[in-house]
Amino acid sequence: MRHLIDPLDFSPEEIDSLLNLADRIRSDPAAYQDVAAHKKLATLFYEPSTRTRLSFEAAMLNLGGHVLGFPSENVSSASKGESVADTIRVISCYADIVAMRHSKEGAPLRASRYSRIPVINAGDGGHQHPTQTMTDLMTIRSRMGRLDNLTIGLCGDLKFGRTVHSLIKTMARCKNIRFVLISPEELRVPDYIIKDVLEAKGIEYRETRSLEESMPELDILYMTRVQKERFFNEEDYIRLKNSYILTSEKMALAKENMAVLHPLPRVNEIALDVDDDPRAAYFEQVQNAVYVRMALIMTLLGLQDPKAKEGN
Ligand code: NCD
């Protein structure tokens, strides 16, 4: 049985097949509408979410399956003190696959050890967010036509942003990638990513505070929100929350075919007038997320692709 806990749980070849399947779904969604008939997805979300939960639900419904879950943590038995291990044993009796978001790093991994059904990590604390990464990869690939030979700028909260950690880990496996890490000193990428990923693999990277200076060299600009909920005190958050705001003036410094990504939700780090710039790809990411999650559910459940013969 397969789980998706860490983005590296899938080999580069498996990610390629997943993205190819997501592309086939995007070009003919109706062909997939009964693929998961009678299958059930449980959503166990112990942290706030709009996109991730609803896109998982939309994905399962688009495949003809069913979804079950609870609206928020305080109405689940976790609030009575139930352990993750017990919860997942129980959910294994109700559903065929589960997507879990938890504030504790490692909670989905722990759940997978006790689960009888595939577990998908839908975000664990400030750690990883592998399904957002698959969405980011699909968007980068469809915008740029490749996942190699790219200069990728990541900007904002690189310390607590789990989408950043997962994206760096995964893109670090692609050829000729350069990272420009744009953040205030306090929100730098954690040392373990620098040492165990970038330096261990000899990947070119530069840390900087200046978004303006970096703009001209970027193929991808990945903006992020300052992660308020992971700060220990409000003063630090207030001091850092406006560190970077992407405006159309800054966009004027960028390459004509650069793509701006953002996992969303946006607070104020991208000015609204950037939305009309053709290089803004963040709402496309939201759409791609549904196709990627459809492809992932199919892959983890071992469901037949009705269009497999035509493509790949
Ligand atoms: C992200 C998350 O939850 O980590 N949101 C998402 O799933 N698209 C990013 C964020 O909350 O800033």
TrEMBL record:
Signal peptide: none
InterPro entries on file: Asp/Orn_carbamoyltranf_P-bd, Asp/Orn_carbamoylTrfase, Asp/Orn_carbamoylTrfase_sf, Asp_carbamoyltransf, Asp_carbamoyltransf_Asp/Orn-bd
Pathways per UniProt: Pyrimidine metabolism; UMP biosynthesis via de novo pathway; (S)-dihydroorotate from bicarbonate: step 2/3
Binding of carbamoyl phosphate, residues: R51, T52, R101, H129, Q132, L264, P265
One Pfam family, short name: OTCace_N
EC number(s) on file: 2.1.3.2
Keywords linked to the UniProt accession: Pyrimidine biosynthesis, Transferase
Annotated ranges, domain Aspartate/ornithine carbamoyltransferase carbamoyl-P binding: 2-141
Oxidoreductase recorded as keyword: no
GO molecular function: amino acid binding; aspartate carbamoyltransferase activity
Reaction catalysed by this enzyme: carbamoyl phosphate + L-aspartate = N-carbamoyl-L-aspartate + phosphate + H(+)
Top EC class, one word: transferase
Sequence similarity: Belongs to the aspartate/ornithine carbamoyltransferase superfamily. ATCase family.
Assembly and interaction partners: Heterododecamer (2C3:3R2) of six catalytic PyrB chains organized as two trimers (C3), and six regulatory PyrI chains organized as three dimers (R2).
Name listed for the protein in its UniProt record: Aspartate carbamoyltransferase
Gene it is expressed from: pyrB
